[in-house]
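As a warm-up, study this chain.
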Amino acid sequence: MRKIAFSIGAFAIAFMVAFAWSQAALTPSQAAISASINPTDMMSTHKATLPVEQWEAI
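Now compare it with the structure written out below.
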């Protein structure tokens, strides 16, 4: 009876690990998303005023 319980527990843990690994492999990482953003290009193409430019310094 003890072997059956350990086998079921090991199978459940293996299933959870495989599921978590498959979900992590499908979602892109934050580094991959931020690497595609070019801040210089964003600053040169931005036409509106920034909130900081409207703020009056003390």
